[in-house]
Structure formats: C-alpha cells, structure tokens
Write a structure and sequence with these properties.
Layout (H helix, E strand, L loop, with lengths): L2 H13 L3 H10 L10 E6 L2 E7 L4 E6 L7 H12 L3 E6 H6 L1 H18 L1 H12 L1
Parallel strand pairs: 3-4
Antiparallel strand pairs: 1-2, 2-3
Helix pairs in contact: 5-6
Pfam families: DUF559
Keywords: Endonuclease, Hydrolase, Nuclease
InterPro entries: DUF559 (IPR007569), Endonuclease_DUF559_bact (IPR047216), Restrct_endonuc-II-like (IPR011335)
C-alpha cells in the first residue's frame, strides 16, 4: 500500500472506530492521559496502529474476536518492536468491561518508559500536575 493510500485508509478507520476504540480514545485524546500525545489509526511502517504515542514509542492495539489465534498479530508485533516500539494488546471486551484495569496497564507501561526517557518523564509530570 502506498503512503497516500495508507493515509486515506487510516482516515477511513478513524471515521469507523469500534466501541472499544471510542472508549479508549476518550481517555487518551488531547494529552489528557499522563500528558502524553496519542494518535489514533496512525501509520507505522507497513501497518496502521490503533493508538500510538510516538514520544514513548508505545503502540496500543485493540483486538476483536477475529484476532483469536492469529499468527499475523505476532509477526506484526515483532515487526513493530523491531521499529523500536513497545506494543500493548488488549481485547475489545476488556476495554469495554475492565476499562480501569486497561488504563492501569497503560499507566504502568508509560511510567516504565518515562524512566528510560527523561523528556517523557518531564511531560508526564506536567500532565499529572494539571
């Protein structure tokens, strides 16, 4: 897929978000989550990641039932990790029924990554203060 096609496809995905994506985006958007900037349906390499925080090199993927037992997800994760990203995967159902636990897992990962990245740590502190 060429860059222009990928960009247009990402835009169409943003217009057709799942209920789980809408719920998580509510918490991640506008630097509201620990002061970190997240993008939704963001092209990364040959893929379009559900949610990406470039400064923390973190990708969050939400998976529905069609992903159960999918070997493609493992190869996708490996490829994204080779690009320097950490990939967190959550089931759509978990985002909808256990939102606080999902958010806690994201906080833990961002905190761990902030310890590795001083600039991210300063942004996180600003986000927690106000």
């Amino acid at each position: 897929m060429r860059n222009g096609q990928k960009r247009n496809f990402a835009r169409s995905l943003r217009r057709r978000m799942t209920d789980a994506e809408v719920r998580l985006w509510f918490h991640l958007r506008n630097r509201a989550f620990m002061g970190c900037k997240f993008r939704r349906q963001h092209p990364v390499g040959p893929y379009i990641a559900d949610f990406t925080c470039i400064e923390a090199r973190l990708i969050i993927e939400l998976d529905g039932g069609q992903h159960a037992g999918s070997g493609r997800d493992a190869s996708r994760t490996a490829s994204l990790e080779n690009e320097g990203y950490r990939v967190l995967r959550f089931w759509n159902n978990d985002v909808l029924t256990q939102t606080d636990a999902v958010l806690a897992a994201i906080v833990a990962e961002l905190s761990a990554r902030a310890a590795l990245t001083p600039a991210l740590s300063r942004k996180r502190e600003r986000g927690l203060r106000g």
